[in-house]
Amino acid sequence: MLAKRAVRTSIRATAIGFLVGALSACVSAPPPPPQDQMSRTQVETAPADLQLLCANAVAKASGVDSTKILPVSSSKLDPKTYQVELDASGKKTRCLVDTEGNVRSVEPT
Amino acid sequence: MTRKLIIAGRAALQRKSLTAIVAAALGLVAVAALAAGTQVFDPKTRKWVDYDRTKARKYYAAHNEVPEAFRPQMVKFRTAEVPGTIIIDGNQHFLYLVQPGQRAMRYGIGVGREGFGWAGIVRVGRMAEWPTWTPPAEMIARDPNAVKHAGGMPGGPDNPLGARALYLYERDQDTIYRIHGTPEPWTIGLDVSSGCIRMRNDDITDLASRVKVGAKVIVLMQGAALYKGV
């Protein structure tokens, strides 16, 4: 009788151990960001280089002098794509660029 | 007839007031949406934490240093801009100095507080070591503390322009904006200035040694109301 109780207690303890282990695995902290990404802002804008790649693409597509094209707004569409709004000498243009720096599209808005 | 006109007038006035209230509310929402609070990653707790003026000052007092993100570092930077170009990301509080090989030297910066942000394409018109600070008339009008320096504050460790200043020009015209050092290094990473871009004194000294007069400066700032040079 005592032996049975001891086995049951042991099984319970093991089960609880597995459960705690599984839960702690679920809530463990995510890996730290790379060293150059240790700060952020609540409004996530496109990285500066991607915004300017869009400006360069708009200059090529429109023929407008690149010194007259400025990114004015940007946002993250999905984990791999940013949308950048640009002002090209008063003309509003929208550009999609991926995180690898490939400009996907440029179109007037 | 007159009564009808008065009632119609009142209704129009109420509609206008309502429209004004809605517009003001929308404006506040828009401003709130653009006010991007800074967060830094705490390696000890492995959590993102808000980084405001009070926390920044405490962090600096404890470490005698700004958080790692705002210290100078070489980063990948895909660009068609020529080496020597300065690119300022006002939203993320970084200044990039373009280097050869799709890389850039990145420094932490403090930028204009709400209503003082601007964007544009300008150039470095001139540079100065331990510059004299002369507050512009607008600053003197809104800040009584600036009055005593209306004639110019000599350069030195307490001078708001810090160790170096890069004067930003739009064509041949001084924009009144500068990239400069600061006696308040804990403000790096925050929206604190009157539109100037501030850096730690060591960083602005390093930047000034690498930059040439005439260098192109691109200032990116989402939500900015003022545009220069474009």
UniProtKB/TrEMBL annotation, chain A:
Keywords per UniProt: Signal
Keyword match Signal: yes
Organism, scientific name: Mesorhizobium temperatum
Protein name: PepSY domain-containing protein
Origin: domain of life: Bacteria
Residues in the signal sequence: 1-29
